[in-house]
Design goal:
This protein is mostly helical. The radius of gyration is 32 Å and the shape is globular. Strands 1-2 form a two-stranded antiparallel sheet. The termini are far apart.
């Protein structure tokens, strides 16, 4: 009876597995657990050939909603996110635009016109402030949205949506391309623990101002179209379209020429630039005077943005009012609103009547000044 030859194992050539094999005797080698795990990984993920330095690598899709087109084109992803964000926030922006026009003031004129009869359904009401003082309040944002929905339905909440999205996208794209043309920024050392200097803050601010200025200039005609589309709700006109920009271009050019596309550009530019400057300066001051840990930076940015938007909000009201004024819409003509000669005139007149803050709050909209208070003898309901 012959003796079977000894079993000889083939030694693995894998350097990861060869050092982990457990030798039982001179003839048999049993692989360890780590060697089996490495083998399983090679079965699941095939070995890829090395890529030469400098070769562009295209990111592969990872499933879900991602695709090769999205991963290879970050611009498309940003534009899609902008459209989604605008879709959720447009009804609120629409209601704020009507607040800035201050349509509730129309009832003080006692107009006996059918087109303005709907305003009487949004009268001021009596209520109490947080301190318990009795005051007169304008309708809040939910009353605006509910009334718009009752008149125009759900799609009516998105009046001017197309032009507003186009304005946002054009502004972002132009700003991004200008930033690329300006060249790379100064390299930042990740482990640098020194506090940022004012020199870097000023350079960053000037760069953002240059980029944002071009974005505002190119996108402003679409901003004018969006505001006028929303303003049509007051007079129930159909001169401007939310989608057909060619119709809007023809309407603006026929009434006001080339200058009509840039009505309200200066107050909007000052608004955006002042927001950038105030935000960056406040963030720099907070980082210089307070602890500048990474977890505190978002809080500083939020505080700075809040202060900047509060300080520059009157310019937002002037931009909206100026864009509608003398546009041919009833909301921008007498007797609904005064005719302003310029945006400075609008700022001055609105400031005299304390109307530069209207629309700044969605809730608890207390009446300031004398404009907008019902005439004597008009009943004011309670909240």
């Amino acid at each position: 009876m012959t003796t079977p030859p000894p079993v000889s194992a083939v030694k693995s050539t894998d350097p990861l597995a060869s050092n982990d094999d457990v030798s039982v005797d001179n003839h048999v080698s049993i692989p360890s657990v780590s060697s089996l795990l490495h083998s399983a990984e090679r079965l699941v993920a095939p070995i890829q050939t090395p890529i030469a330095a400098g070769t562009a690598v295209q990111q592969q899709p990872t499933g879900g909603f991602t695709s090769t087109f999205n991963s290879a084109n970050p611009t498309f992803a940003v534009l899609k996110a902008t459209a989604l964000q605008q879709a959720f926030g447009h009804p609120m922006a629409y209601a704020r635009a009507l607040m800035q026009v201050n349509i509730v003031e129309l009832q003080t004129l006692n107009l006996n016109l059918l087109v303005f009869r709907w305003v009487m359904r949004l009268p001021p009401y009596r209520g109490k402030t947080l301190l318990g003082k009795e005051a007169i309040f304008y309708p809040n944002v939910f009353r605006y949205l509910r009334y718009i929905y009752n008149i125009d339905g759900f799609t009516g909440l998105y009046r001017g949506f197309g032009c507003a999205v186009l304005s946002k996208m054009v502004c972002w794209y132009t700003t991004t391309k200008v930033d690329e043309l300006l060249g790379p920024v100064e390299p930042v050392v990740p482990n640098d623990q020194t506090k940022p200097t004012w020199d870097k803050c000023i350079k960053k601010t000037l760069r953002e101002v240059r980029c944002q200025s071009w974005g505002i200039l190119v996108s402003h005609p679409f901003q004018v179209m969006a505001i006028r589309c929303m303003g049509q709700f007051i007079g129930r006109e159909t001169n401007y379209s939310s989608i057909n920009i060619f119709q809007n271009i023809q309407e603006i050019y026929n009434r006001q020429g080339i200058g009509g596309f840039f009505v309200g550009l200066i107050p909007r530019w000052i608004l955006e630039i002042a927001t950038i400057v105030i935000s960056n300066m406040l963030i720099q001051m907070l980082k210089s005077q307070l602890p500048s840990q990474s977890e505190m930076v978002p809080l500083y940015e939020y505080m700075a943005a809040f202060v900047a938007q509060t300080a520059t909000y009157p310019l937002s009201v002037v931009t909206t009012v100026t864009a509608i004024n003398r546009s041919g819409l009833r909301a921008g003509m007498l007797p609904i609103t005064p005719i302003y000669t310029s945006w400075q005139d609008a700022y001055t007149q609105l400031g005299k009547t304390e109307q530069l803050k209207r629309g700044s709050s969605f809730f608890n909209r207390a009446v300031f000044g004398t404009l907008g208070i019902p005439v004597p003898g008009t009943p004011i309901p309670n909240a």
